[in-house]
Every structure is written in C-alpha cells, then in structure tokens.
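Need tokens for this chain, all 323 residues.
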Amino acid sequence: MSAGAAEIVPGGGLELLDTGTEISARSPLQLFWRRFRRDRVAVASLLFIAFLVVIAIAAPLVVELLGLPGPYTQNPNLTDSFGSPLGPSGAHPFGVDQLGEDVMSRVIYGTRVSLEVGIVGTAIATVIGVTLGVVAGFYRGWVDTLLSRLVDVVLSVPILLLGLGIGAACAVRGCLGGTIQTGLGEILFLIALANWTYVYRIVRGLVLSLREREFVDASRALGASDLRIMSREILPNLVAPIIVYSTLLIPLNILLEAALSFLGVGIRPPTASWGQMIAAATPIFNTAWWYMAFPGIALLLTVLAFNLLGDGLQDALNPRTAR
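Here are the structure tokens for all 323 residues:
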C-alpha cells in the first residue's frame, strides 16, 4: 500500500500526493517487541534471567567446566586449625563453608531450586487463579460470592505461619498420604495453596468488565456456549495482564522459598538452597562473610531481574504507553 502526503489546495481542501513509500502493518507481537526492546533495563534483565536458566539446566556441566568440586563434596582440609572455613581463592572463588563445601558450586546448584520454585510454583498458582477467576467473573452470583469468601479466608492466614505449620506437619512422613514431601514438594504445595488468590482477584475484576463487551454479546447471539466464550473470547484478552502479573509473582515466590528455608522448614540440607545457605552462614558471619554474601547477592540479583522484567513487560504490553 502506498502512502500519500497531504497538501492544502485552493478552496481549503486536501489533496493526497503519492510519495511511493510502503506502509506495512505490524502484528501485536511486533508492536510488543518494538516497545519492549527500547527498555534496555528490561532487556538486560531478560538476558540475565536467560543466563540463570542456562546455569540451572547445565549446573553439573558448569561446575565441571569451572573445575569446582561438587556441591556436596566435603573437604575438612579447607578449614583452618580452629575449624573456620577458608575464604575466596583461585580454586574456590566464593570460598568454602564450615564443612569444606565449595560455596560457588552450591550457589550454582541453588539456582535450580530458586527457579524451579519461582517458575513452576507461579505456573501452578496462575492456572488455579485464572481458572477460578474467569468462572467467578463470568457467572457472578453465588459462584462469585462463594469463591470471593474463600479468597478472603485464604488471605487472612499469614503465609509464613502457614508454611511453618505445613513444614512441621509434613516433616516426618509427608502430608496427604505421602503425596507431599518435605522440601520442594512442600514449597510448591504452599505456593499453590496461598498465592493463587492474587491472580484470582485481578482476573475476576477484568472478566467482570469483559463479559459486558459487545463481542461477548455477539458470541451469545451466535449460539456459543459459556465454555467457548470463556476460552475463546475472554481468555485471550487476559493474556497480557496474566503474563505481567505472573512475572511479578515469581520473585515473591523465590523470596518465600528463601524465607522458609532460612527458618528451617523449606529446602533441607544437604540440598543447596540460597535461603538455607544464608541461614547456615548466620552464626559464622563475622568470620566467614563470603558464605552469606554470595548467596545473598545471587538472591538479590535474581529477584531484582524478575521485578525489572515485569515492569518492562507491563509498559510494553500496555497500549497507552505506545510511542
């Protein structure tokens, strides 16, 4: 399609002049990427998260390439005569802990736990929240009232206290007949149990507005079923806010795992976890600062990257910010 430039002609009219330039339409994905790549901070955060994913997937290979001992390899010779761990060196860039385990190797393996909890836990909570939110917003009435009261009950329970209770109850033989075991399974169960409520509230509010739109009335007039309207008409319009909020929920779940592991009811030793490493480093922080500093820095950068990425996605997916 050729573009035309407007020129004022006598009499106050406009005449289109053929300039020969082509105007190409852009898809929503192209418009999103055009806006997103302008945010250098968000792009850098995305690259950092991609780097973390590669590190987590290839953790054994990365440790081997760096010439580091395994995360569970103990070496008493790496402590001094008083039993204090040795600091960073060429062979152990992040130092060792009080058991002689390499801190850098454990930080690399801890990336696996944090990303698995953040991504998998958020995905489970998002699926539950979106499903119940769409149903409640679409049908309203007693369905909406029942689910909203359930959300109020769940939100009234402090999540850390709930985690401590679940951790104590599942400490010996697990919960639900052994289905939920201590450690990663317990954390994922807690996230799915508690954090779906935030997604539910956002989705419910959006569906309450979307169900009154003309395209929903048109689908009803054509004889579409409720399930088809919810899945084909309403749900696609929720993709952008779901992506944005899920990205912002991931760091919250990573911090939740770190907090529970710090309190001793999350990931248990010897599994490498940043929160568990920080808890173990607390008594020896004055003499072995590196044992707390490097897991803490890894946790800080990961949470910051997901938050910055979420902000960038929110700006890129919002049509009002288009330039």
